[in-house]
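Take a minute with the sequence and fold tokens given here and flag any structure token that looks odd. Thanks in advance.
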Amino acid sequence: MLNMQTLTKIYRTDYVETHALSEFTLDVGEGEFIALMGPSGSGKSTFLNIAGLLDEFDGGSYSLAGEDVSRLNDTQRSRIRNSKIGFIFQAYNLIPELNVFDNVDVPLRYRGFGSAKRKALIDGALDTVGLGGRTKHYPAQLSGGQQQRVAIARALAGEPGLILADEPTGNLDTTMATQILELLEEINSRGTTIAMVTHDPELAARAHRRVNILDGKIVNA
């Protein structure tokens, strides 16, 4: 599903050169669930940005679902990002002025789907996360756990092969965090590949594999 070979990412200023990733090599199989761990500044966010085609890299190669994405232009990257990748963020990133249905609908509109197909995808995703009866609610009317479920539904609705989750339980209490992880495990059991960044070793232990990152390099996989 995801293959990175000797990736290098360097951030430069007038005085400092920071190697965010260095000789970074990772292979994630289709249907796998991996947990990435490492201290702040280790390269986890850089990995997610590159994996999600939100940022470019300076050296090495990256293929996603068998397609070399190393030299794609912005339009091509956007097309693949919108059709093959779902994102889940720690802060939910919901639009407060939109209700649950419309929040999930946002990325689907960029795909050019008709209203009937979008509705079917949205209803299916919200049913999966247990919020089929909350379509008209607004984010402020939901608990943190429910807002994260909406965010997961938004990621799922486009039927991506890969979900990138950045601290998806970071803002939740233990009970809610466990429920969200169980939901991700259920989604993974249906064949969706998941790469999750987390600081919680107990959550990481439930993934198929734990990947530790330090100073832009993988120290075990």
Remarks:
- The radius of gyration is 17 Å.
